[in-house]
Fold Gfo/Idh/MocA family oxidoreductase.
Amino acid sequence: MGYKVALVGGGGIAVSHLEALRRMEELDAVAVADISKERAESVAGRFGIAAYTDYRDMIEREKPDIAVVTLPHFLHKEASIHAAEAGCHLLLEKPMALDARECDAIIAAVRRAGVRLMVGHTQHYIAHNRAAKRIVEEGRYGKLVMINDVRHVNYYADTRPGWFFEKAKAGGGIFMNLGSHSVDKLQWLTGSRVEQVKAAVSHYGAKGDIEGSGLAWLRLANGVPATISQSGYPGGVSRNETELVFTGGMVKLMTGQGLWASEGGAYVEIPVEQEELPFVLQFRDLVRYIEEGVEPSSSMDYSRSVVAVVEAMYRSHETGTEQNVAGEAVR
Ligand SMILES: NC(=O)c1ccc[n+]([C@@H]2O[C@H](COP(=O)([O-])OP(=O)(O)OC[C@H]3O[C@@H](n4cnc5c(N)ncnc54)[C@H](O)[C@@H]3O)[C@@H](O)[C@H]2O)c1
């Protein structure tokens, strides 16, 4: 019998976590809580675990060792603090919370309770991303001089749950949800944090009050500049491309699809070996953190920094000025 794991939220991503848990001997999924009874029961039935409609009830009765929080963003803070105070270690889905102040409240509660929390920055566990990170670290194509990250997706697709379109529940739109993956990717690939941001977003979506596109210029602490371009309006072809420009070559990363390099001329594909499921690798990092105290790459402090960058993007749009991630506008 391994650690008992309970899912707080039984939506789309909870299923990916449960599929990973099925493959892991050291972890046993025991229960799922979802405010929708129908959803809780269907997920619980599929994975042979108990169903609850109130996560507090679930934590009290099941006494899980680990709670996996997969709720809408506005509930990350209250659920994480509740689970930490009940003595659970935590895997909390990205983004850590709505803003850096909420992250601080979570961090304080986790430290007080003496439990471990890591955030599910899945980018760190995807084989193509890991291969790209090794290239950056080895300096295979010389010095990294800039990164351009481009994402297009129909963000307004009917399949997306409604809360993603409400700023009060999601914290923002495409930049908060998918932008946090891009910010994470830039920081993690380079091992450096974003310090300054200039950004502009637009609000022309057919539903909700969130931004449907965003363009940002960022500067990392190591001096490398980067851009993030995201568009979520219907139309156009889906894209998820990160281009890394080095002094001696270029690398194109299409997360989950492929990795290419050029030292002049056309891109040539770099073979990438498939590894274990990203969500399995993610859980393994959490177990190592719990058992050996090895802090994961998506530590609390790191994950807070991702939220702080997204906040700085919104501040930059609102004020029309370049922003320091730490707070004040750049003069
Ligand atoms: N790592 C990734 O690649 C990735 C991918 C998708 C989503 N996510 C993140 O996972 C989280 C969940 O996203 P999702 O796509 O699964 O959303 P979702 O809407 O499919 O799932 C959320 C679930 O929470 C339930 N819920 C709402 N309020 C509740 C409450 N008070 N108590 C219990 N259950 C409640 C909803 O009924 C819903 O089933 C978000 O933070 C999102 O950004 C991460």
